[in-house]
User: Fold this.
Amino acid sequence: MTTQMGFAEMMQSLHAGSAALDYRKTGRLLREMEAQAGVHVALMGNVTLDLLTPFLRVEAAKVGQMSAFHVSPFGQYMQDLHGEALQRFDPHVIVLLLSAQAMRPDAFERFHQLSVEDRHRLRDDMMAEVEGWIDSAVMRTAATLIVANFPCPSSALGVADLSSDYGEREFFLDLNLALLRAVRARPRAMMLDVVEAMGRVGTRQAVDRRMHYIAGLGWTDAMMREFGAVFAHALVGALGAARKCLVLDLDNSLWGGVVGEDGPHGIRVGRGDMVGEAFRAFQLRIKALKERGILLALCSKNNPEDVEEVFRLRDDMPLQLSDMAATAIGWDSKYTGIGKIARQLNIGLDALVFLDDNAAEIAAVRQYCPDVHAVLLPPDPSDYVDILDALPWFEKSRLTAEDRARTEHYALAAGRDALCASCDPMDYLRGLDMRAAIRDAGPADLLRVHQLFNKTNQFNLTTGRPTMGEVEAMMTDPAWQLIVADLRDRFGQLGTVAICALRREGAALHIRHFLMSCRAMGRGLEHAVMNDVKRRFLESDAASLHGSHVPTAKNGPVRGFFDDQGFAAADGGDRTDYALCRADVAFRDCDWIMLETK
Amino acid sequence: MAVNMDDLLNLVGDIIEVDPSRIDLRLDRDDVPGWDSLAHLRIITAFEAQYGVRLSMDQIAEIRTVEQLSRTLGEA
Assistant:
């Protein structure tokens, strides 16, 4: 019919953020492909949600998530949680979008006649309903819940509202604060900041009252598009789909000017110069990404000595070489340098975002490394911070202790590599003085375990990606045993780095998931975990222990893992199933890891 | 303002996913496949964006054919 654009071409166009991108055409093509969608999104609320799906569909695709939608009937956000349709749909995420005015029409029509006590009751009553919904959704689904907050309407009292005791403005600030706290207290819920999104669009450009009266959702296309964008940001967080590393160009990206020509004191960055201030602000923003657990790397065409000199002499710059997990500085092409960085960090190209001010470099990276998300910086450095903020790729629903210490982990890894280079592998492992705690996962592990499940590609036998709700079920359902391993060595904590999920089915004990963070690979920890699994197997009354290997493009390191562990293989087509009977259990030696109990 | 009927038919056809050459200018939207209430809103907002006009709620409700849509530009 009208759509001739191929999928690959469309994704490229989405990827490049093409201004010519036709929203309608793309939305249609995506809808036709909905059957292949990997992410199930349910929309619930008391506004006309159908208007939003085309926008959510396209914005989700921009972050690489093909989505299918279930839209609950208008206003039936409570009832639909109990419906069969939702159970069958099995959502990964549920978005709850409520209009405060539609929730309590009588109260809001006469808000200014209500007593202060009645307004407090109104807030509590609305919060009870929303919290009731969240708790019910947590119980009835395995989805992550994305709950929108409430924009404040313009007040009928004008500026006097601001000086009134618990006026409308104060009411909404308080309601949204209560909502933020309620959502924060529930690990499987996230807040969607509609108030902030509307501010970015600008209320005059965001609200179309005609559409409120005609259609039951008074938003302009611009607002629905922005809603789609904040949804996409939340989705990356909810699915644990954030990219791992930001690769940065130097000249005219991190500072103004060219170091090879302007010298370390000629480049513009720092206080007292308007352009220098803009680059300084950008560096501070980038440095803050480290708090989210994003690795930073440099890829620049320069003499390495010149770059080192800049960092040595310009210690007034927010970013320093010690902030970088990897660097590729020289005269190779950028895509070659980016490949080196990925190998050095042991992560895939699809875990990288690259920023550069040079359109030719960006085009070459898009051509030769299409998995890298390459972003062209705009001409003026004062716009750089906004460009970075608008990227959805670094969103996390919550930060874990591992996130905050990630760059440090990689720095420690460099210390370990130096040790490794200097001695025989076995001496190296013994020299690390490793201590592991292999234990049953508890509620405090939920976020880290969910994160590991969703970002581990290499040492991952089945590459299952359970939702947070499914992880919770593994912790509570007696048929499951969810085992985690924490590791530390003489260089420091590596944190929780391995997961094994066992499921009892009849007389068989199945290893449904077995995965290990790349930061722990090559240390033999997998043997210690498998020994623990085998011990659990022998202590149970199960007759056999089973495992599977599902090959992917990335999990080459686990090929032959179960063979190596003494299992017998059975051919299973796109997967290999393995079995081990009690008599064949053999433990593997890994005495270089000392086991601790926690 | 003069309106190019082909442009308008392309706009409507694109939204309701019907070949523009098969849309009857005078056919009531209830009888045009795909022109449901949601599509109607999308047609109106796309029309407003393309021609830089803003229709009243009554106009939006009263437009039942492509021809009536084109006539709002004369009124605007």
